[in-house]
Design brief:
Arsenate reductase ArsC, about 160 residues, four-stranded parallel β-sheet, arsenate reductase (thioredoxin) activity, arsenical resistance, about 40% helix, EC 1.20.4.4, alpha/beta, oxidoreductase, 5 helices
């Protein structure tokens, strides 16, 4: 299964989701991430806390969803509210689209420990969803069943 995570700037939540999905999925799921308005760099704390969790950060880059026309994802998951409200490119037309709202740990202000805890909480939440994703036993061609299964995961 191919999954594309979308967040407007593609620097934190979508990056975390891509890295965690590829790590936990161990080849059963191929994940990428992109943004409608990418900033061109991954948030440094995303890298720091992924590495702390033992998750590879190799190859993670902030990039435009225009780079993924040939990727043909089975599922496109928006992880920020602003991306959920945007019109996706036409070439996403055959993909199931769902929204998994995630708090943005990179926008938190507070002590270093509070910010660290926000990143760890987001990483844990994504990891739980990906573990549940691996147990989905749905044919990727059955778009309604796939949509329902992924929407349920986002509601957890």
């Amino acid at each position: 299964m191919k999954v594309l995570f979308i967040c407007t700037h593609n620097r934190c939540r979508s990056i975390l989701s891509e890295a965690i999905t590829n790590h936990v999925g161990q080849g059963k799921i191929e994940a990428q991430s992109a943004g409608s308005q990418p900033v061109g760099e991954v948030h440094p704390l995303s890298i720091k806390y992924l590495q702390e969790a033992g998750i590879s950060t190799e190859g993670l880059i902030s990039q435009s969803w225009n780079e993924f026309e040939d990727f043909a994802p089975d599922v496109v998951i928006t992880v920020c509210d602003s991306a959920a409200g945007e019109s996706c490119p036409l070439w996403f037309g055959k993909s199931v689209k769902v929204h998994w709202g995630l708090a943005d740990p990179s926008k938190l202000t507070g002590s270093e420990e509070e910010i660290a805890q926000a990143f760890r909480t987001t990483i844990d939440e994504i990891t739980q969803r990906v573990n549940a994703m691996l147990s989905i036993n749905v044919n990727t061609q059955d778009q309604q069943a796939l949509r329902e299964a992924f929407q349920a995961l986002g509601a957890q």
